Amino acid sequence: MLQRSRNRPNESATPSRLPVSRASPNAHDVSKEWSLNRRHPARLGLLYAKVVKSYRRRRIVGVKHRVIFGATETIESILAKRGWKINTALIERLNLDFRQHVAAIGRRVNTLCKHEAGLRQQLAIFHTYHNFVLPHASLRLPLPELMDAVKSGKRWQPRTPAMAAGLTDRVWSLREVLRYRVPPWPQPQVH
After folding, report:
1. What is the pLDDT of residues 132-158, one digit of tens each?
2. Which residues make beta-bridge pairs with 141?
3. Which has the closest alpha carbon to 160: 121, 183, 125, 127?
4. pTM of full prediction above 0.70
5. CA torsion sign, 26 to 112 to 92 to 136?
6. Upper half-sphere CA count for residue 28 (Cβ side, 13 Å)
7. Does residue 133 contact residue 97 with C-beta atoms inside 8 Å?
8. CA–CA separation, 148 and 145 (whole Å)
């Protein structure tokens, strides 16, 4: 998502969502905390930076990194552990996947989502599809040197983010995902 800066017409800012969050793992808790601490997001332990690109005649002439939430040293040390720098490529790819797979948030689409519940349902299905069904090329592993693999032409084992995280040992089909029975959440004990 490219946004023009209001201050300088020749600059654009693209936010870079870092894979770092020390907030509660429950999304509803995070959204409640965020609404309470909107003016002080650092309280939640969020780290957020953006890349500001300067253009001249449709060519990039400069790139600056600007930290929005958190300390620059903290962000750089966390990213350095993984060999990363502040970059927008990952979030831009995720935004593209959202637009392609979730009809309600695509550009120039005929479908609308009339209620928040419908959007949440579409996002939940996409989230599961993206992590359990869709193999990612960057996560694939080389197959061991076997004669059958060489004859069949396969060199790589496809992997999903759920496989890389150790949540499952195989690529799921969409049919399996939709038929999977989710166990009920533990209900709070009322005394």
Report:
1. 999 988 888 888 766 555 566 778 889
2. 157
3. 127
4. no
5. positive
6. 1
7. no
8. 9
